[in-house]
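From: lab user (bench 3)
To: helpdesk
Subject: output format question, protein + acetyl coenzyme *A

Hello, I'm new to running complex predictions and I'm not sure whether the block I got back is the full result or only part of it. Here's what I submitted:
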Amino acid sequence: MSNTVSESATLEYNGKKIVLPVVTGTEGEQAIDISSLRKSTGLVTLDPGFVNTASCYSKITYIDGENGVLRYRGYPIEELVEHGIFIDTAYLLVNGELPNDSQHREFSRLLNECSLIHEDMRHFFDSFPRGSHPMHILSTMINAMAAFYPDVDLKSLDEDINQSCARVISIVRTLAAFAYKRSIGEPIVYPRHDLSYCANFLNMMFDSPVRPYQIRPEAVRLLNVLFIIHADHEQNCSTSAVRTIGSAQVNLYATISAGISALSGPLHGGANQSVIEMLKMIHEDGDVNKFLKMAKEKDNPFRLMGFGHRVYKTYDPRAAIAKRECENYLKLIKYQDPLLDIAHRVEEAALTDSYFVDRHLYPNVDFYTGILYRAMGIPENMLTVMFAIARLPGWVAHWREMIGSSTKLVRPRQVYTGQECRHLEEDYRKVK
Ligand code: ACO
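Helpdesk reply: Thanks, we reran it on our side. This is the complete output you should expect:
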C-alpha cells in the first residue's frame, strides 16, 4: 500500500547527469522525486500554481481527474453517499477506517459534548458590523477558539486528539448557525443532545421561539449527502493552506481558520455563491448565449462560475451527484426553482460549445449545490459556510496526517526577478 521507488529519471544539465528517483503511488500515478535536486545541483524547480507539483504523500483521498473518480480512504464517493451518514465519513477521513457501532456512538457523544461554544464567545458576535460576510465571522471565531481552548497544542493532541478533532468539527456548525441567527437578528438556538449532526445544524439555523422548526428527514438526508461530497478533496487550495500553516506547528484552530479564509475565495469554495449570483443574472437577462460569449472573451474577466477544475478534465463526480439530487429533491418537496432550468440550459450550451469542450470545462461541485441549499432555505451568503462545515473533517484529517508524519516546515523557494544589488547613498544623490 505504500509508495515505491520504481524507476528513475535522468536530468541533464551543464554536461552533468542527475539521476532522480521516480516514486509510484497506490493507484499507479508516478512522480519524480526532486527533494535532493538543490543539494546536488543548486537548482530549484519553478511551478507557479503548483500545477505539476505533489506537495506530500497522502493516504486520505484519491482523485483520477481524467476519469472522474473520487475516493475517500479507498471508498468511492458514490458508495459513501449511498451509506449517507456524514459523521461516519468524517470519522473515516480522520481515522482511516469507518467506525463500528461503538465507535460511532462514541464519536456522536464526543460531537455532542463539544458542540457548545464558550459563553463568553457569544458576545463576539455583537461586535461584527451588520452585513459582515459569515465566512469572515467564521474564520475569526475559529481563530479565537485558540484563546478559549489553549490546551490544544501539539503535546496535548498526542494524548487527546479525538477530543480536539471532534471539538473543531462540532463547533464549526454551532458557530455557523449562531452567525446566521445574529445576522438576521434572531435569538440563537443552542445545540440539542438528542439530534444528529445534520438535524442539529438545521434546527439551530431555522428554529425560532415563534416558529418551531419541523425537522424533515428528507432535508437531513440531503444535508448528509451534500456534506459527504464536500468532505475532502486532497491538496486543493484550502487544504494546502491548512498543511502549510500547520507545518509551522501552529495550533489546530489557527490552522483551520486559514483553511476557511482560503476557501472563501470565488475561485475556490466561494464559487457556490457566485454561481447563484450568476444564474440569477442570466435568469433576469434571459440570454444564456450572451453569458457564454462573455466567458469566452479573452479580455473579459467574467468566467462561467461552477465550471472548470484544476484536476477534473471530465465531469466532476460530485457535480453528477448534486445534479441528480437537485432533480430528485426539488421534485420531492414540490419546489420549482427557475435557476435549475437556467443551470440545465447553461450546462447544455457549454457542453456543446467547442471552447468549453476543447478546454475540458465541465460543471464542478459548486454548479448545482447552491440550488439545493436554496431549496433547503439556506441564504446565499451562507453557501460557502456550508462548504466550510462539510470540509472540516478533510482539513482535520490532512492536518493530523501531516503532524503525524515527518513533514518539514513548508517553505517554497522563488526565482528572484527584482533589482540587482544597489546602494542607498548613490540613489539619494541622484534624486536630490
Ligand atoms: N469559464 C471560462 N473559461 C474558463 C473557465 C471558466 N469557468 N475555467 C477555465 N477557463 C479557461 C481559461 O480561461 C483558460 O483558457 P485559455 O487556455 O484560453 O487561457 C483555460 O480554460 C484553462 O483555465 P485555467 O484558469 O488555466 O485553469 P485552472 O486549472 O488554473 O483553473 C479554476 C481552475 C480556477 C477552477 C477555473 O476553471 C475557474 O476559474 N473556474 C470558475 C470558478 C469556479 O467554479 N471555481 C470552483 C472550482 S471547484 C472548487 O474549488 C471547490
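A quick orientation on your result: The first helix runs from residue 37 to 41. Let us know if anything else is unclear.
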